[in-house]
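Kindly go through the following sequence and its backbone structure tokens. Advise at your convenience whether the structure tokens fit the sequence:

___
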Amino acid sequence: MLSRLDRYEEFLKTGYRAGFRRADEYSVEEVRPDLAERIARGAFTRVVFSGMGCSAIVSDVTGIFLNAADSGLEVHVFNDYEFPYLIPRSVVDDEGTLFIISSYSGHSEEPIRVLRALEGKYHRTLLLTSGGRLADLGRQLGVSIARWELSEPDREYPLFHVGQYFAILLDMFLRLKLIGQDHRAEVAALPDRLSTDFTPVHRELARTAASRSRDANLIMLASPKWHESLLKLAKMHFNEMAMVPAARNYFHEFCHSEVATLSDPERKHSVLLFRDDDDDVYTSGKMDNLVRLLTRDIPQNLNVAVTEVKLDQPSFMRKYFTALEFVQHMALDLGRYCDTRSRDLISEAAGNMWYHQSTIAADMSAASTA
């Protein structure tokens, strides 16, 4: 099996854009007829997603997109199993709330704990998984299941496929009539759009940003729309692929507190500022001011670098996935520089050996001899 960075580079060349046209790689055959009927007649005005890591990140992206598209569907996301501290009780108890528990592998413990905690609400719960323990338990409990059926998944790093997950969810939600707007043509057009939206200038900027971020504290800033969707996923790419620490901050809150750490830092800091051309005048002016403060030719800024990434494409989808392509190239370049060898800390710390390299190798060996 190729190394993670070699697979990552190959995915960026051939898989990232292609995934948007594989929106049919899922199954809803195990969605119970009673739940399908309730969804179709508009019984649910709210979705609460639960999941860990990349299994949940597509929920954030989809939720922000549906909000931007004025879909009328309210979306909440939480990344734990102690949801009484994360979601209002009024939302949990509302019969108009549909729970979607997402676990790509189906082997993470936290989604299973969420499912058990939702006893009494299984009639409005949908599991989103490729199988594993979660699917087995769901069948035992009579819970509806929608299955990921990706034809070319990366077993170790499902975060590669967020674009395809996004395409699948929009197709699935339309098919189940959870949403009424049909976004399939816009999604299918993304590969062609990205071929012009992601320019050589973006690629060179990614190289520059990666160079500025070598051995530096990486700080990402954006307005709320992008903090909750783009920056959350970007942090995963920097953490898991480049294996470097990264922080994400709400832009305005950063200016009221964390910016003080850049007063005269001894360690290098790389600030990645995502600027949406739809940001209001106040935000835009405040961003201009921050850039001026941190790029002035003074000794205190010696260890501070600022990279501005403009989100000036004509739609949310094109802004998001152009920026994500930028992030992935930057993470690849930074990962090549750091050259950190994985020691499977995610699978071991999370207690999910399904993602462990030894498990993957054993499964591949068994499959080749079967």
In short: The longest strand covers residues 269-276.
